[in-house]
Amino acid sequence: MILRNAALRHGRILASPMSRPCLRKLTTELKTDDRPDADSNAAAQSWPAQQSSPAQPKTMSATTSKKRKQKLVQEFIMSLGSDSAQEHRGDAWTKSHQVGSLGAVLTPAQQFAEFQRIQKKTRSLGSHVERRYAPTELISNPPGPEDVSLELLMASQAHMGHNTSLWNPANSRYIYGVRQGIHIISLETIAAHLRRAARVVEEVSYRGGVVLFVGTRKGQMEIVTKAAELAGACHLFTKWTPGAITNRDVILKTQATKVVDHLDGELEGFDMYKGMARPLLPDLVVCLNPLENYTLLYECGLKNIPTIGVIDTNVDPSWVTYTIPANDDSLRAMAVVAGVLGKAGQKGKERRLQDASRGNVSWNTSPELTRHMSKEVQAAVVKRKEVMGRMQSNVQGFTEEEQKLLRLRNGDVDLEVNEDEMVNMMSKTALDDAGETVVKAVDGSAGTKKQPGSMGKRLADIEAQLQRVSQQATHIELAVVGKLQT
Predict the structure, then answer these.
(1) Region Disordered: start and end of each range (predicted)?
(2) Which member of 321, 394, 431, 466 has the lowest number of beta carbons within 10 Å of its beta carbon?
C-alpha cells in the first residue's frame, strides 16, 4: 500500500503531505544484525569444545507487524486534524507594505499608480520591434513585389528544402547548400524568380487575361481566395477535374459566361452569344502545389497555356513555364508568394482601368465574339433597310410621276436610295411640311385677329410637331453613324 494515499483510502483528504520522519516511522521491515559480537567470537576461539548456539534474531511475526502498521497509520490520520491547520498568507502585493528599503508604506492602489508612472516614463526606452509577425496579416494585407526581401523570405522558411535523398537533380541550380541533411534554397534566387513571376501576372492582368490561382492542399483555401480577389481572377482550392481544359465543352458546358466592356461592366443584349459560346480558357495558371496537380499542368501544356509553379527540391521544374523555387510545405511561405502575385495582378488591373477611362484599351475582343457581333450588325442592317424601304414608299416628297420616272430610269426596279440621302430627304421633307404649316398658321392668324386663344393652340401644336420631326431625324442620323463606324 502506498502510504501517501492511506488517508484517501479511509475517506479523508490530506491537508498537507506526510513528513519524512513519519514515513521513516512507518517502515515495513525491521533490520536486525545477524553478526555475532566480539565477545562471543573470542569465547568461541578460546573454547572450541564448548559450542554455544547462535543467537536467534528478534523477528516479528507477520500478524503482529501488520497490526502495528495499521495502528500507526490510524494514529497518524487522527493527528492530521490538529496538525494540518496552516496559516493562509496571501500575496504580498494585496497588502500594504514598504516599497524599497527607505520607501513609504503604500496600498495596492498606490503601488499600481506608481507602476503606471514608471512604465510611462520608461516606455520609450529599450529596443523597438518595427515589424512583428501576425499569422493573418500576410493574408489580409499581403506584401507587394517591391516589399520582397531576403529577411521576409527567411522568416517565412521559404529556403527550407527536402532531404538530400529526395532531391531532383534538375533543381541543383536553385540550391545554395546542405545543412543537417536538408537542402537549402538560395534566397537570392527565390526573390529574383518571384519578382519575375509578379511581372508576368501584372502584364497578363493589364491585358485583360484570365488568371487562375490553384492551391489544393489543406490550409491553402484562404490564401488562393484572397489572391484571386485582389487580382480580379479565378481560384481553385478543391481537386482538379481532369479534362476541364481539354474537354471543356462537355465538362464546363453549364458554366455561365459574361460579356464585359472596357471598364469591366457587364453588357446586355448578348443572351444568344452566352448560350452558344464555348467555355473560357485561362490565360495564366498559378499553381502552389504542382505535385498534386500534375494533370492540370499537363493539360495546360497541351493547350499552350503558360503556368507559374512553386518548385521545391523534390519537384521537376520542367512541369511549369515560370518557376518559383521555394518551400511548398510552409503555409507562411505560400501566403507570401500568393500575396505578392495577387498584389501584382491588382496593380495590372488598376493600370488597365485607368488607361480604359482615358480611351486606351489594352486588350482585343476575342475572334468568336467579333464574328458574333458582325453577324448581329449585318442582321440589324438588313432589318433597317427593310424599314427604310417601307418609309421610302410613304415619303411625301415624291409624287407618283416622279416615282414612275425613277423606276423607268432603273429598269422598272425600285430605287435603292443611300441611307445618308434618305436621311437628308426625310429631314428636308419634314422641315418643308413644318414650314408650310407655320405659314398657314400665320396667314390664318392674320385673317382672324379676334381669336387669340385658337392661334396659341395652333402654335403649340406646330412646335410639338417640329420637336417630333427633329427627334426622328436625330435617331436616324445616330443609327446611320453607328453603322458607318462598325
Answers:
(1) 31-68
(2) 394
**Banded pLDDT at 455 (limits 50, 70, 90):** low
Q: How confident is the model at residue 460 (pLDDT cuts 50, 70, 90)?
A: confident
Backbone angles phi, psi at 235, to 5 degrees: -140, 160
Q: Which of 380, 29, 340 is nearest to 191 (CA)?
A: 340
State how far the Cα of 207 lies from the Cα of 348, in Å rounded to an integer: 8
182-185, strands of its sheet edge to edge: 160-163, 182-185, 175-179
Which residue from 10, 16, 140 is spatially nearest to 73, judged by alpha carbons?
Answer: 10
The three cell numbers locating residue 353: 482601368
317 residue type, one letter: P
- The pTM (predicted TM-score) of the whole model is 0.57
- Rounded Cα distance between 373 and 367, Å, is 10
Q: How far apart are CA 402 and CA 389, in angstroms?
A: 17
Distance between the two ends of the chain, CA-based, in angstroms?
A: 102
Query: Closest Cα partner for 181 from 155, 206, 162?
Result: 162
In whole angstroms, what separates CA 257 from the centre of its chain?
23
Spatial CA neighbour of 203 closest among 308, 348, 382: 348
Alpha helices in 394-485 (DSSP H): 400-409, 419-447, 452-485
